[in-house]
Amino acid sequence: MIHPMNRRGFSQPHYDAIIIGGGITGAAIAYELSCKGAIVALVEKGDFGGGTSAATSKLIHGGLRYLKNLELGLVRESLKERLRLSNIAPNFVRPIPFMLPLYSYKDKWLLKAGMEMYDYLSFDKKDTLLKENALENYDYYSAKKTLIREQDIRKEGLLGSYIYHDCQNANAERLTLSFIKSAMQYNTEVANYAKVEDFIIKDGRVKGIIGRDLINDTPIKLLAKVVINCGGAWANDILQFKNAPKTDKATLRSEGIHIVTKAIGGQHAIALVTPKGRHVMVLPWRGHSIIGTTDKPYTGEVDDWKVSKESIEELIEEINACYGDGQLSYKDVCYYYGGLRPLVDHQTENTYDQSRKHEVINHTADGYPGLYTVEGGKYTTSRHLAEIVSAKLSSEITLENDRQKTAKIPLFGCKITNLHQYHEYLKLQFPYLSQHMLWTFIGMYGEESESILKRFVNEEHNPTLLNADGEIITQVYHAIENEMAFTLEDIFLRRTGLGTLGKPNTVLIDMVSVILQEKLGYSDLVITQQIENLLTHYQLLEED
């Protein structure tokens, strides 16, 4: 398979659109515009999907809780996009059963109405291209059956539970990357570690950007008909450039963190309400559990934010108050992650009740025609948001009028018509590899799995499996050579799962460091700094 990410950088004298930000929103817009014939450049100051897009609960869902605020349109949009993402990325977006434990008759009847409405709004949930990805209607479990299925559910006062289905996106960073790859197949040009420093103004219009390629330490100057600010939590910072609108609009941001622990539940994603009235989830993931998320307002500088020990302890306290034996401790946390969500709804008093609506701002009224900012939204609806942006740009750039093209075409590496048949095919090709390992690769790489595994066999790389998922050192070579991985963080946290179930051991870090240094020619000083940067993601686990 030809890897579109082999090329990095920009070759055109002029683009139709420049996109600032390589998270899921920027990636989806790049794919949408390039599919419609636009010449697109995308710049990302860090790594693709390294911000808010990497801080999700790893779900593609309709947003059941939005029914509480009667946001039926948002829920229906999300459910439609859940189906479309399941169809264009079936190896990434897979069904997962949710359990809602019931402890009061009021909740039982209110949630029954919610279940009925959710099923009604997702009437097409069985219309998946892959039958194995079709979703079932909701069901009710008695208290006895609930406890048989999930033994850690609190027994006191339990009436039963509702079971419904949404989808899990176990490899959110790699799905974002697949959007980038798909855009590049349509000739979008991209660069990560390319920082925008200002806009170019000509004839009273935003005509491009200037910045710096942080990998090569060279200047960047790109021209385009329109510039689209998809900076996510950093969007307002971008609007503070010298040649920018300098909006004084206060950006509301929500802090969300997750912790990864040993497996503390069964096969259901369990949605719980804490005694404080907050919603938290326990999600099965790679033989472990993800617990989250928090939802706290944050008003400081975006680059200053990081997960705190206090936030982790608060989350542990909340989950202990409503789930299990109440003995989950800080020592049980093997990994943590988080991010800031930009919000556009200012009508509610707290960030949890905020809508996940989006906003597309045309800065012509601010005196900066040619500049657009995209704010808010959620991972699930990012592809549809890209369609909306495309429609708003149709008067500024020439686009093919092919509606919902990106809703129909499988993403790069995702043209699999039957996952189980593909798994059987890989078993025939690699009979000595475990079934679990093959499923890991299908979930991460889709159709790319075969070529990576062939290389593993043919080049006789170290045959040692690097974790329980069956990941191998060949993935490191693939990430560097074909996926624009430039740092240890890129490799351990986003291209592979080698660093997201706990702190990697020194032997593994050294092994990957040697390959990175050999492939990219880094000095010992650079590698030492990269190791230090990687280890900061685990420093809270080592505190007393």
UniProtKB/TrEMBL annotation:
Record keywords: FAD, Flavoprotein, Glycerol metabolism, Oxidoreductase
Family label: Belongs to the FAD-dependent glycerol-3-phosphate dehydrogenase family.
Organism of origin: Flammeovirga kamogawensis
Source organism phylogeny: Bacteria, Pseudomonadati, Bacteroidota, Cytophagia, Cytophagales
Stretch forming the signal peptide: none
Cofactor(s) annotated in UniProt: FAD
Name the UniProt record assigns to this protein: Glycerol-3-phosphate dehydrogenase/oxidase
Highest taxon above the source species: Bacteria
Domain annotation Alpha-glycerophosphate oxidase C-terminal: ranges: 405-524
Residue stretches spanning the membrane: none
Gene3D superfamilies listed in its UniProt record: Alpha-glycerophosphate oxidase, cap domain, D-Amino Acid Oxidase, subunit A, domain 2, FAD/NAD(P)-binding domain
FAD dependent oxidoreductase domain span: 16-381
